[in-house]
Write a structure and sequence with these properties.
- The complex is a heterodimer of chains A (283) and B (287).
- Chain A is an all-alpha fold.
- In chain A, helix 4 runs parallel beside helix 7 and helix 7 packs across helix 9.
- The longest helix of chain A is centred in the N-terminal third of the chain and has 36 residues.
- Chain A is globular.
- Chain B has a two-stranded antiparallel sheet.
- Chain B is 76% helix and 3% strand.
- With 287 residues, chain B is an all-alpha fold.
- Chain B has 13 helices and two strands.
- Classes of the chains: A mainly alpha (283), B mainly alpha (287).
- Chains A and B meet through helix 1, helix 2, helix 4, helix 5 and helix 6 of A and helix 2, helix 4, helix 5, helix 6 and helix 8 of B.
Chain lengths: 283, 287
């Protein structure tokens, strides 16, 4: 241990003991920090099983499964969740497609205006969400455009694109161009090469980008607040309800989304691991 | 590939860029320009607006809301320092000591953030409430004075933002630390550097690009945040995001709100540029 050599004047055993304790500080700290990240999640899950007496789900009143059975009993909440899902699905598909095309152009082709394009992609990420939302509101109001689910989708595609481009570009930048050259040498034309070699290789990047876009979209509150009009998404509904008392069904839906996400990610990771070990060519 | 495209190869990148480029021009650039134009208009929602090139509005809203501006920058800075202080040891441990549990640990860091931002913040409101789970219990044990409260204080808002942006800091730090060649650290200790010296002279400088990315990813959304101030704070913790939101959505003061948004955006971009320059320069002289 380097700590033992550095502390040479000390008796050896004491120095070693100190080094051993020192070794545990970081792991214990990290475990505590991770636990801290889960505190509000634990509260959310626990209070989904609460049986509140009044409008406020603040204090523990007793265990019940009622909230799970009556998941859609709260008027408006189910609709808001469906709206959120529709918005997230449409904007994810659109942004992933559009963003991947940009990433391909940026990594594969030489063209004029590359600097300007990079700026156009970087700026939405460097702009605070409240400014993005406000500017879209300014546009829609001054052009007299009615705000509803369409404007929400338009806005979500906009802020998703930059994240998709960055994620996919990183994946394309990391791969070996010689594989494509090999395919062309073996007689494949450009389109076949793209379909059979390029696309499968960058697909994990596209999938990761789509997951990121979906996660950003379904949880977005700030931008959606500005462009939603009277339409309510899940986060907007919860925010509105927080002033008058949140029904425990919100906790239940939060818990279900959390569990789906957790199972989805774990499943994806397992699949990736299996794919990686099954196909040595991937490495 | 169709023959037309083969003959006009130069057009391919532009075709690839067309949908996304147009989307960003129409729904990012155009809104920004509209907002800039709205900010220098005068009038009201009922009587309509006229473009009067009222540039005085910027000085006006700046002096009217200087408290909130300064507070936002202050909270943003405190939060960035806090998240770096909390997140760096986490990222370091996962990168250097995680072993085969690296991915699991990273997953655990990200997982809580698949719960809605709003729900997480409301959970903190439960937790920090005067008679809530945390303070109520501590007060019950006599560890805290009955009059003690956290909710509606700057501490509650800052801790809320810190919680919400912690993964934005851990992930880029992890990426930067993970890339570092362990042999460099070993070389330093072989040359009689203590572990602390090796960290300070080798690991830390090599991780600076990660620190740079992390602080930007935290600072930008933290300064513009208004949810934490709204749910966990009080009137004494109002941030600039709250003002913009209120002016746009409640009082319909479009020119003022637009001017505030523009100032916020320019201030942040300016800060980013200066920060990039300073840190880039340090890297050059330090390396």
């Amino acid at each position: 241990m380097s700590a033992a050599t550095a502390a040479a004047p000390l008796p050896r055993t004491r120095a070693r003991k100190r080094a051993r304790i020192g070794q545990w500080i970081l792991p214990v700290y990290t475990a505590l920090a991770v636990a801290y990240l889960f505190i509000p999640i634990a509260v959310m899950i626990a209070f989904g099983f609460n049986d509140p007496q009044g409008r406020f789900n603040f204090t523990w009143q007793g265990f019940t499964l009622q909230n799970y059975a009556e998941l859609f009993a709260v008027p408006g909440l189910g609709d808001a969740l469906v709206t959120s899902l529709v918005v997230a699905l449409i904007s994810t598909v659109a942004a992933t497609l559009i963003g991947t095309l940009i990433a391909l152009a940026l990594t594969r082709h030489v063209f004029r205006g590359r600097g300007g394009l990079n700026m156009l992609i970087f700026l939405p990420i460097a702009t605070p969400e409240v400014v993005l939302g406000a500017s879209l509101l300014a546009l829609f109001v001054s052009m007299g455009i009615q705000r509803d689910i369409t404007t929400i989708i338009v806005a979500h595609i906009m802020f998703d694109i930059s994240y998709v481009v960055i994620t996919v570009r990183a994946r394309i930048a990391g791969f070996d161009r010689r594989l494509e050259e090999a395919a062309m040498d073996l007689g494949a034309n450009e389109w076949t090469t793209f379909r059979k070699v390029t696309l499968p290789l960058i697909f994990p990047g596209i999938l990761a980008a789509a997951l990121l876009a979906f996660a950003l979209s379904i949880d977005d509150f700030v931008i959606t607040l500005f462009v939603s009009g009277r339409t309510s998404t899940f986060p907007l509904w919860v925010y509105g309800a927080s002033r008058i008392g949140i029904p425990p069904q919100v906790n239940v839906m939060g818990t279900l989304i959390f569990v789906f996400a957790a199972v989805g990610i774990v499943g994806w990771l397992l699949l990736q691991r299996r794919g990686a070990s099954g196909r040595p060519s991937d490495a | 590939m169709p023959g037309v495209l083969r003959r006009h190869r130069w057009a391919i990148p532009y075709l690839l860029l067309l949908p996304g480029g147009l989307w960003l021009i129409f729904f990012f650039l155009l809104p920004m320009l509209t907002m800039a134009s709205v900010s220098i208009q005068e009038g009201s929602l009922s009587q309509g607006y006229r473009l009067t090139f009222n540039f005085g509005i910027f000085a006006e809203v700046l002096s009217k809301n200087s408290t909130q501006f300064i507070r936002s920058l202050e909270y943003g800075l405190i939060v960035t320092v806090l998240t770096l202080a909390i997140g760096y040891p986490m990222a370091y441990t996962i990168a250097f000591r995680g072993g085969r549990y690296k991915n699991v640990l990273l997953l655990l860091v990200i997982l809580p953030f698949f719960t809605s931002f709003i729900i997480r913040t409301i959970s903190w409101k439960f937790l920090l409430a005067d008679q809530g789970i945390l303070l109520g219990t501590l007060k019950g044990w006599g560890l805290l004075d009955d009059g003690f409260h956290l909710l509606a204080t700057p501490a509650a808002v800052i801790s809320g933002i810190t919680y919400n942006f912690l993964p934005f800091v851990v992930l880029p730090l992890y990426v930067a630390l993970e890339k570092i060649d362990h042999r460099l650290v070993e070389a330093a200790t072989d040359l009689y550097a203590s572990r602390w010296q090796a960290f300070r002279r080798v690991t830390l400088p090599l991780s600076l690009p990660g620190v740079f990315a992390a602080s930007l990813l935290c600072f930008i959304p933290a300064v513009g945040d208004f949810i934490n101030a709204d749910l966990l704070g009080s009137r004494a913790t109002t941030m600039i995001g709250n003002v913009i939101q209120f002016r746009f959505l409640q009082s319909n003061d479009y020119p003022e709100a637009a001017a505030l948004s523009l100032i916020l955006m320019v201030a942040i971009l300016f800060g980013v540029a200066v920060y990039a320059k300073v840190l880039g320069g340090e890297e050059l002289t330090g390396g």
